[in-house]
Write a sequence for this structure.
């Protein structure tokens, strides 16, 4: 019986790396430069079981409850555009349903008043008040994942030899980060032709790179995530049941002059219900992303034009045709 060949995922203990930032920073930067993926373990004050509870609670809710928080593109009776629930679409190559939230900003914030849907308030399903505290746990885990991402960026900064807090101003105020629960049901019957790949495999999420800055992913004990190696070979990622998988997004690669790799990946149908929880770290909507963080500030080219994150990522999502963000208003980003 042949053994499975896994993708060689570098592993970093966040506890140890934080205690020795110089060595930890070198390890993180090396991983992001070479494979663009990183396994994170020994994460202080992180309980992956809470994420599992969130998935279990939400995805067992009735269709009526899910419809009540569904994005307007899938339920015209609702007003939420960017946050909320998206259903499985039987004719899509991506076979998944998901629920996503963000950090709310005050109602009197200019971006909320202007109707910028990146800052619409999260919508929540009703709770009975007696069982699992879904909203409270989701908000707690959003904050914990944000802080983990910030610690990783501090290590990256040390590893790059730049000021330790170099990245913080992009994310400390009004980040557009998305926290998502995902359920991948197995295909029932023949999948569409576009979902079939080599060797008889079938995808539930086709090959892609993430658009944003970086992703922290809880895989639990599930297999199915595959990564394209530098040799052009697809290999599975070994699940990290009590930690997180980090991968570089297109934006992170762009903002370090291509030094880090946004690696292609996909999700396979494993024949059973699969769950995962990604946290997509994203800067504030109007953050200028037309910078190279590896170049000292005083050496930056001042004639560079300002490029805002929001319009940039809207265009990116339209190009990649992610079904959960299909038909967003002002998808051309001309309004911004």
């Amino acid at each position: 019986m042949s053994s499975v060949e896994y993708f060689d995922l570098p592993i970093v203990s966040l506890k140890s790396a934080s205690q020795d930032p110089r060595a930890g920073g070198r390890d993180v930067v090396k991983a992001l430069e070479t494979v663009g993926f990183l396994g994170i373990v020994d994460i202080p004050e992180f309980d992956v079981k809470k994420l599992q509870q969130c998935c279990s609670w939400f995805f067992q809710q009735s269709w009526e409850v899910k419809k009540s928080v569904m994005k307007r593109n899938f339920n015209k009776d609702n007003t939420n555009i960017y946050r909320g629930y998206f259903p499985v679409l039987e004719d899509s190559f991506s076979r998944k349903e998901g629920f996503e939230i963000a950090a709310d900003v005050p109602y009197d914030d200019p971006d909320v008043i202007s109707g910028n849907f990146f800052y619409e308030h999260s919508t929540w399903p009703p709770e009975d008040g007696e069982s699992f505290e879904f909203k409270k746990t989701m908000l707690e885990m959003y904050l914990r994942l944000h802080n983990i991402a910030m610690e990783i960026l501090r290590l990256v900064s040390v590893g790059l030899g730049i000021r330790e807090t170099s990245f913080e101003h992009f994310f400390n105020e009004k980040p557009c980060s998305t926290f998502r629960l995902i359920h991948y049901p197995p295909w029932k019957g023949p999948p569409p032709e576009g979902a079939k790949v080599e060797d008889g495999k079938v995808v539930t999420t086709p090959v892609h790179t993430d658009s944003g800055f970086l992703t922290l992913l809880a895989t639990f004990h599930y297999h199915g995530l595959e990564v394209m190696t530098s040799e052009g070979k697809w290999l599975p990622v070994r699940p990290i049941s009590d930690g997180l998988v980090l991968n570089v997004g297109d934006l992170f690669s762009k903002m370090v002059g291509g030094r880090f790799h946004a690696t292609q990946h996909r999700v396979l149908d494993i024949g059973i219900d699969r769950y995962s929880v990604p946290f997509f770290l994203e800067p504030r909507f109007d953050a200028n992303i037309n910078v190279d963080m590896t170049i000292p500030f005083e050496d930056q080219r001042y004639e560079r034009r300002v490029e805002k994150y929001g319009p940039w990522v809207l265009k990116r999502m339209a190009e990649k045709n992610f079904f959960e963000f299909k038909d967003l208003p002002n998808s051309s980003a001309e309004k911004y």
Remarks:
- The longest strand covers residues 274-281.
- The chain has a mean pLDDT of 91.
- The chain is about 25% helix and 15% strand.
- The chain has one domain: 11-325.
